[in-house]
Every structure is written in C-alpha cells, then in structure tokens.
Amino acid sequence: MKKSKRKRTLSLVSLVALNLSLTSLPMAPVIKAHATSPQISQDGKKQFPSEPIQAFLVDKSRYNPGEKVTMSLLFDSSKEWKGTLNLEVYHLNEKVAEGKKNIQVKRDLKGLEIVWTPPADDFRGYLVKASIEGSNQVLTTAIDVSSDWTHYPRYGYTTEFPKETAAESDKKMKQLTQEYYLNGFQFYDWMWRHDVSVYSKTDNNGKPILDKDGNFITEEITPRTAYKDLLGRMLFPLTIKQQVQAAQKYNAAAMAYQMNYAARENYQDFGVEKEWGLYRKNAQFPNPSQQDQEGFIFDWANTGLYLQDPGNPFWQTYINKEFTRSVNEFGFDGIHLDQWGANDNDYLYDYNGEKRYFSKDYDALINSVKDSLVKNNNKKDFVTFNMVGGNEGYKDVPKPTTNTDFDYSEIWQDKDNYRDLVKVVEDTRKTNGGKAVVIAGYMNYKLATGVHYEAADVKGIPKAEQFSSRIQKVPGWVGDFGRQDEDQIIWTVDVPEAGTYNLDLKYGHENDAFPEGKLSVNNQLVENAISFNEKTGWGNPVADKNLSLHLEKGTNKIKLQLNTNNLWLNIDSIVVKKDSFEKEYEAEDAELISCKVDNIGHVDHFETDGDFIEFTVKAAQAGTYPIKFGYSVERTAVNRHLYVNNELVSNSIKLDPTGSWETFDDTEAIQVPLKAGENKVVLKVEKVNDTGAKVDYLRIGDSRYQAEKSTIGWDPTQKPIIEISNNQISNFKQQGDYLSFKVDSAESKEFPISITYKNAGVETKRSLLVNNKKAGVVHFDQTNDGWNKVEVPIYLYKGSNEIQLKMEDQTAEKGIEVDQLVVNNQVIEATQTELGWSPVVAKTSSISVSPGKTDNFGSAGQRAIFTIHNENETDTLRFKYRTGNNPRVNIYVDGKLIPANNSYVDGKTVSENIFSSTPGGWDGAMVEKSIKATVPAGQHEVVFELASNGEYINLDSLLVGDEEYQVEEASFAPEGHGITTTVGYVYDFNEDGDFLTFDVDAPNAGKYDLVWRYTNDSPSKRTANRSVYVNNEKMENIDFAYSNNWKDQTMTGVPLNEGKNKITIRVENLDDDGVKLDYLQIGTKKYHAESTNSLPPMQIYKGTLLNFGHSGDEVTFDVDLTEKGETSFIFTYSNAGADTVRTIYVDEKPVLDEKGNPYTVVFKSTKNIDTYSEDGYVVLPGLDSGKHKITLKQEDNQKGSINLRRMTVGLFDEPSVRLMDAGLAAMGATHIEMGTAEKYDEGPNMLAHEYYPNRSKKMSSSLKESMKDYYKFIAAYENLLFDSNETTRLVQVEDKGQAFKISTDGEKNTIWSIVRENRDNKGYEDYDVVHLINLLNNDSNWRNAASKPEMYHDLTVRYPIGKTKQDLPNLKVYSASPDANQGQLKELQYQWENDELVITLPSLEYWQMIVIDRNGMENQKPIKIK
C-alpha cells in the first residue's frame, strides 16, 4: 500500500493546475486526546475510492507564530462520492486540534482548502492527519511554526539560473518548500564576479564604470540580461531575483553564496589591492608578483581566483560593501560564506612576507559581515560559514561569540564514516552555544551508482579466452595524515606482560622536508620528536622507525600525532616486539581521527585458475575453529576452494558482491579443523577464470592474518596431456602444452637448434621460448611414420637459459612426437625434458613512450622558437606540454604578439596565456592547449615565451594543422638561456606483435628511402630484427644492430603511393631486447615515433574493454530506461594519457546541444592504466523511457585510449541516502542535499559534488518520495530531534531472544542507537528518545552505496530508564518512522523489569524513533495547547 500511496501524492503545483473549487473547513481545538489513530468504521467502504485523498500539502515551509496555515487536499474524482473528512493536528503525542466535514466530490469539487491558525507557541512542529471515515487511508503533512528558520534549518540549494519566467521560478520553489519543507536555500555560484557579485557596468576594455561617488553601477536587469560566471555558465540575473522572491513567498530564506576571500582575475581594475592578498610559501619578497599569489586557475574558462587575507581590514571593508550590495539588489536574506578548507594550522604570507595563519581571523571576518548586514537591514542579516572538514580546525568559528546563525560543515573523504560525523556534530554543538548544525555530505561522491551495463556484455568485440596469473600483493596505508595535532592514529595494543617493548613504525613519504611526529602511550607523551627522515615515495611505506617504549600488561593505547603541518605521511603499521612476543598492528585497523585509509592492504587480481593465497595460522590447541575472510568483490560473486593442511575443506567459499572494489566485507564463518601449532590455510581459484576478488585478511577469533603478508602463487588445475612414452615425447598437441630444458652458453649469441620429430598429421608449428621470451617459430612438416629433423636459429644469453617448445595454436587433432633436441652441441634426450602446461595469452602492446621535452624552462624571457611550414592557412596553434605549475606564456607569430584567448566578461584581452597545471603534474601525460591564431600558408616563426618567473613547464611540441614540430628541433633564446631538451622516442618495442604505424604523405608515387633514427643500447648487444609493411604489403626486414648512440638505418627503394600511406614496423614471431626509435624520415620530413599508433585492437579481457583508442572504435550498450527525461550516463574507465573525449549517440544518432554540437563524454586522466574512475559522465536531456542503444564512438579528431568497465545510468543510491539522513537527524543535525533543476520537470536535484551544478546522478522517483517523507518527519518532530541532548544510555535490541550488536557511532553491521533526553528542553523535559538505525549488513561508510536493510518485526528493545513503574505510573511509549505509516506516532506495548523498560517494537527497516513520555497523561502536562 505504501507504494500506491506515494504514487498518488501529488504536488501542490498540480492542485493549482486543476482549477479546483475549494471550500473551508473549521478546526476545533482539542484539550485532551490520544495519539493513536481512530477506529475506522467498516461500513460504507465501497462508497468511495480506496485512496480517496490524492494529495495533502500546506502552503509554506515555515510559519511565524500567529500566521495562518492553508492546507490543501486533492481528492480522487474519477467518480462522484460522498464522505466525511477528518483532520487531526498533533504536536508529538498530543492532539491539539481536530475537525470534520461532510464532503461530496463532483467534477466541480475536486479539493478543499483549509485555513487554520496554530497555537501561538514559537518553535513547534506539528503533524496533521487527513482521512475519510470508512477508508484505511491516512495522509499526513507537517507544519513548522518558527519565527527564525535557522533554529531548525532544512537547508536546500539552487544553482541553475537559466532564462525562465517568474511562474517557472515560482513552480520550482513551490515544490521544494511545500513537498520537501525546505526553509532555506543556498544560492550557489550566482555571482557575476567573486569580488563584485552584482552585475555592473564596464567600458569596452572591461574596466568598471563608476558613479560620481566612486561606486559600481548596477547593470539594468531585463529578461535578456545575462552574464557568464567563473566557469563560463551563462546566468540570467532576473531568474536569480525571481527565485529569491519565490523562496521568500513560501517563507524560505534566500542565502547568497559568497567566497569569503576570493577576487577574480584583473581584480585591481575593480578596486582590490594586491597588498591585501595572500601569497604562496615560495613567493619572492619584497614586492611579490600576482603569480606568487595563492589562487586557482581555470584554464578552460580563462579565469582565476586569487586569495585575499580575511583578516585584512581593507579587504573586509571592501567585500562587506559588496555583500550588502548583493542583499540590496537581489533581496537576499543573508550571506553563506565559503572557503577552500584552510584551517588554523595552515599559513600563507601577506604582501610584506609575514606569516599569516589567516583562518584564525575567520571569526573576525564573520563578525564584520554580520555587523555590516545588521547595519544595512537587520531583517536580512543571516550569516553562516563553511567549516570545511569539520569544526576541529576552526577553534574560533563554532563559538557563541562568533556571529553565525547556524554552523555549517562540508565533509571530505577523511571523514567518510558515521563515527566521524558523530564527532563533528557533537563537538560543534558542545561549543557553539546551541546553534543548529548543517552538514554538506556529498552522497555517492564520484561513484557510479545506479543501473549498470557491463562492458563484458557488449556485442561485436572479441573476448580473451585464456589468462595468465596476475595475482599480486598491494600494500595498505593510512594517508591524509599531515596536520599538526589534529590528525591522529590510535592503536589498541595488547601485550602479555608489562615491560619495555621495541616498536617498529613503518612509514613512507616524498615531502621536500622531513615530517616530525610524537608518540603517546596511554595519554602520556613518550616520544616528543620523531623525525621521519627517509623518503620512500608515495604509496610505498617501507621505511622503519625503531623506538623503545614501556607498555602495561593488557590493553594499551598508542597514539601517533605530528608536530609539523602540511608535511604528509603514509603510515603502514607498528610491530610490537619483546622476547618471543611479536605482533603487527595495521594502521588501517586503528582508530583514525581526521585522516583516512588511503589503501587497504590486500591481495589483488585473485582471479585466475590456480591462483592461491597461503596463510600460516597458529593454533594453541587442536580443534575446530571459525574463520572468516575479509574481501571485496565489485559486482559479480565468485567462488573459491579452501584447503587446510593440504586437505580440501570446502569447494564453495562464496564471495558475494560488496558493491565496489574499495568496500570490504567478511565472508560467513567457516568451521575448519586446525592442529596445535602451525597450519597452512590456502584459499584457491580452481577451474574458473572470473572477474576476481581482493582479499584483505583471514580472521580467526580476534586474530587477523593479513593477506599482503601471506604467501601467494599460481598452481593451475589445467593439466598437460603431453607425455613421455617409450623414451620419446608423444601426444604433443594440446594448446598450452610444452616441453622445457636448460642449456648453458658461454656468451650471448645465436645458435642453431635441431629437433628430431615425427608428425603423422598435417603441417604444424610450435613456438620456441628462451627465458619466457618468444625466440622463434618451428615448422614441422608431415613425416607420416618416419622421423625427420628440423633446424632453426635461436638466440641464447650468457649463462643458463631455459628453453621451451610450446604449442600456442589451437589444440590439434593429432600430435607430434619428439625424440631428441640439440643446442650448442648439447644433446637433450626426450627423457631429460620437463613437461607442463601454461595458458596461451594474447599479448597486448608493451611499447612505452618517452616524450621529448624541455627542462629548466621556467624563467621569464626564456623562448622556444619554432620554424613551421604551413601548407594551408590555419587558425589554431596547439601546444603539447605538462606542468605542475601555472606558467604564463606570450605567443608570437612572425614577431606579432597573439592576444590570449581568455576574454574577460566584457571583451578585454591580455597577452599572457595561462598554461595551467596538468593531471599528474610532472609525472603525468602531455596535454594539448589550443591558442587561437591565424597562420597563413608558408613559412613562419612561432615563439613560445615565458612571461612568468619560477613557473616551470615541460614543452613537448607544437602542432599546426596536421604537422607536429618537436621541441628538440626548435631553437632557444636568449643567449645563456639554460634550457635543455630530451629526445622523444619509443621504447620497450620488443615483444611479438608490437607495432608502430606511421601515416606518411608522398608527393608522388615512386620509390623512396626510409631512414630510421634509432638506438639499440640493450645490455645483450643483440641485433633487433623488424618486419616492415607498406600499405599492408610486406617489405624486406630491417636489422637494428647494437649502438650506444642515436644513428640512422636506411631502407632504399621503398614504393609509396601518391598521397596517404601507412608504414608499419612490427616485431614478428619473437621477443627480443628491443630497439628505441626516434623518427622515420622520408626526404626532409620527419615522422616522430612518439606520435604514431601502436595500440592493439579493442578486446574484452574478463570484465574490461581494453584499447578503446582507434578512430572509428565504438561501443554500444543496450539499455532499458525506467523513467523519461534528463538522464545521466556514468562510465567507469581508466586513462593513462591526457584527457580525451568520445561522442555519445542514442539510437545511432548523435545527441545535439542547443548550439547544434554533439554531446561528448570527457574522460580525464587517471594517471595510470590500472587506476579507474567512476566520474566520466554526460547528462542527456529529454530521453524517453524504454529501450535504447547508447553508443560511445571515437571520432577522427578524438585522440587517446581508454579502458572501459561499464556504463551506469546514474542514480543516487536510495539506501545510503536514507541511512545518512536518518543518522544526521538522530544526531540533531540536518543535511543539505536537495535543490532545483534547470527545468522543473527534471527536478528536483540532489547534490553529487562540491561543484553544485554537477548532475552526474539523478534521483529516482522512489528516492524523491522517500525524501518527502523524511523531510516531513524532520519538520513534524523538530522539537525532539534538534533541541534534545545525547546521553550515554545504552539500549539492547533482541530478535526472538538473539541480541543484535549495538553501536553508538554507526559501526558496520550493527544497529546504531542514539539516545537523547530533554532535561534542558523547556516543555519537553518528560521525553526520552531512542533512535534505532539499521546498519546490519552494511558498512560504516556513509558516502558509499548501501544494501537495502532487511525488515525486522517484533523486536525487543531494552531501555535502562533508571526509574521504576512506581516512579512513572503514567509512562507511555510510542514509535514513529518516516519509512512507514505516514510518520505517525504509534503507541507501543511495553513491560517493566525493575528500572528497565522492555519495549516491543513492531518493525525496523531503516530508522525507528522510539518516544518515551514519562508523564503520559496529556491533561497533566505543565504546558497545554488549547
């Protein structure tokens, strides 16, 4: 029934559209009533529809005391009917008003409007019930009577400001205020500029026009007025005004988002002084330049933000004037102050080079903003401030003396667990004087939640069929550990006796300086200055710090903190040792405060037949023990075999999906027999090749054995059929079978190998391998019954060589026999060989690229000079580069300065182009930046000149049209410039199948010389032989002899066609030691190897589509959309190169935007091919529900290659959202998450990202209805949720006598209990509240996707109330939940057991709120509503 009720819960917007005939219903006050629902008569049920009420809403999100409430009901008018409408208004468990009316529903009467004035009491929530006598249906709505919205903020956002009518703006706000009860909105990124929010007049050069008093002049705002924001979005200020007015119409506040210390590019033109700025730690003083100023460059939008000192009184005066101007011009109710997350330990420098711990002045800035707003208009003076990452780093912000109206905190990934939220909320409320707390927690952040379509199911792409083992160990560590004092790792360590123990602390880092830490034991400082003076690189915590410390017998708390700030550490573990006692404690299992697990140590790629993990487990005595494995499996369940001491214990250890590779869970307990002492426990993959699992640990009781410290290996179950019979090898025909033997060589050189064989079948071949590298192919002609001998060359290395003869083709009908092999004068008889099997795996390219680049290129005035030859006029110069800085560059063509293509809002141009930092910085891929410049046909000089100082860049090349000019061929200036260059080349060009394809142009058909620039500096000095193909026709092979420097090798007389030709150079039938290639030269033109195509064709390898990187490649997913409208498609991918794009097609047609351009998906660099992102997405408008073909295609102009795992129709994960909102409300906080969409029909939206316009995920219809229920519940019960205080009382919850594990901080796989009391909550002192949140079968991470909780019935809840029945004879117990029963309180049965209540809870799905009224007789309450 719940689902059908939701279906009919219509928006009040719908009511208006129906042209209702509305009548009034008087409401009578009630002096004494009970919260239980009235008995519904069974008579006359068939007189009206089963759900006669279709919608029930109030007209505003909040009401001032004494303000009238208008309630509206919409009835089912599919047929005429009569009935009696009952309305009841409850404040908690007290009925405060009721009314009845006989109604007759006809075509001209479809609804009612009821006007009622609530009691005058301030800050009260009400639940109103509507029903028709004789029907089982009850609908509810909530009323919030509060004179100040910040007392109970239900904060939403708006960030879409398209051109729309006032009615369209009203419609959006009406929905969010009436259906979701939002009473405040953050207007995000509405500003013209960050330093001048209000759109103002400028001259033709983009400079502001001032009035006679020196003030900015506001631009006239008409329906056509528009401007671009910081990131290039087009905004319509009239829409902003309309949305402000619409929010206020429904008693919701409109808060203007403002960055508290940011000014835009060319800020000095607008009156901001450079002397107010904050400057980087590497800035040059005195007189630092603007590039020394801390800030952020948005290269794609050609804009930037520069930080100002929030404590600077001149900045405060300037920006407060602009804030009040925002309020006056747009009507905002206050200011929402944001910042980038710097806390009290962070410093920069002011203009004079003095250290500024600027966040310590946030309170001063906040108070100055408040004072200026109050002075301007004390009815529009609300202020809040974003404490990024929680309150801990901002000691002066969450204080009563800091004049925020409520506290707000944006939570980042170092606080992903419920316990982190508990700490943030509790600590903030303890210090802020009772202000409300709003949490910005972005749900399912950068996760592909929704409906998945796997790349493995894509049709028309070949799939790999055989697999080699990839099993490997991956270290684990705690990261984001670098803040002084705030960041803490606390290990709980148990030792058998008191004494002095050795402690090895494993760590790693790659800071420029050495972090310093301190160590406490049981809250006593024992090491006050630990220098972490070994650099290991990031993600490689292998350094040891050896310490000695005293521990008490039993449990000890060892806490690591830092004395330094912003010097980061990776912490792996501590090893505690004394005599025979030794135990390792992983940092990832410790208590973490303000830091997080960067990587869980595990065994990865546990996926291939024969993979095994062997644990050495100690048992004190023989017996049967329960063991569990900690693991993660993304989406597909896998099965594993378990052996104990070489005996099979189970062939069905099931590893069910955990939702993502980063979410780990435990298997069910398995009973296994162990002997006293050491045991070998082996988990193994047998007879399958699947998508795999990650294994974290094996757990026996309280002991954990880490998989990353185990033994791993590969022992395939596939067995060879090759055999030795009659002293000869026979039955040599199965794919993967091989014979092997060892041969010594005194030197590295080529030798003949002869094989005596018999082949009764057709001609066949076998591969030769030397030391696991392919050395050639042997062809075996048919011999019938006779013996034959075949001889081929084979390259041996100095020393011992292992030689394999292997069947790599498909299994043959008949096998060959082998009698004898002779190599280097050594005779190997068949009986001397070893036989075996290994998979034949299709190879992918091993080729790597070392780009040519500049070094020491970072000083102002340094120049790279390219001479280009342009066949046709072009309008764009494309530079390939990478940098970890943001250098500014002047570009000249034939001596003429090319203006930067960053057009500041009003057309002003400047000469300096910003080449912003690239993904991966100095270790990342080269990216392209385009500069608009008309270059006629012919020869020209292009100059790349650095304008900034100390901002370095690796410049790779210049592309003009189809021509690429490498930087190593450029010249440089001025004299003594100091710039160096490296040669770009390809390497690791050494495995069978590796190829490079050059696209070359020939002016005429004819024969040409091909000049290959190469070096072969392999240690073996082995000549590299390569095959060459021209337009798919094989030419003669070419040898690249050993050389220790770059040299040329020429092929003469090679035929080329006029125009386009493809020249491919390939490794064939062997693996060798490789050759490095720089370029292919034909005539005077050079084709650089680093720019060629070396990518193998697309292939599906298990669950991943590889090598999606060729022009024309396309991947099609067959989808079935359940809802029509705007749809997000998210792609899970990896991209080791520069950012790239693919065009998206729907049903074989490109989807075009409003400008007629096709929609594309941006795949940003993930830095390496093994790192996957779930944040490549596109939002397509107006799709119909039903079946579609969604195609990604690589067009001719789209470069780069990606690997693809899946496409997801992006939807927020409903269970995780509901659990998060339940947890926050139970803590006494609220969640900013709901906001407007660009179009009403597409909304509302939910926050997916810190950049609010990001719409990578949508809300399902089900989640929208759930959010209506949750916000209604929060409004109705605000007095108990937000004005109560948490207690330390612990409850017990049992299911049929079986106790559930209870947590007070949201521990995984528990029922999370939060108990609150109201001793200091005037008028509510008799109420105790017990929140139960069902985290059973879920982890403690609030951000990740969650499983839908199991519904439990008739649970027993034991509550230690501390009083007896004699003390509280009138006590009553109720429960309510937003998950059921329209949020109504229902009276519960309970019993007394001494001073404990034993309560029967009918059900628990997500969240139940148990309300205990100690003085249950309403007419005895001290405060009565009449």
Automatic annotation (TrEMBL):
The keyword Transit peptide does not apply. It comes from the Bacteria. Keywords: Signal. Residues 583-701, 942-1083 form the CBM6 domain. GO terms for molecular function: carbohydrate binding. Residues 1-28 form the signal peptide. It holds the Pfam family Glyco_hydro_66. Gene3D superfamilies: Galactose-binding domain-like, Glycosidases, Golgi alpha-mannosidase II, Immunoglobulins. InterPro entries: CBM6, Galactose-bd-like_sf, Glyco_hydro_66, Glyco_hydro_b, Ig-like_fold. Belongs to the glycosyl hydrolase 66 family. This is Dextranase. It comes from Neobacillus bataviensis.
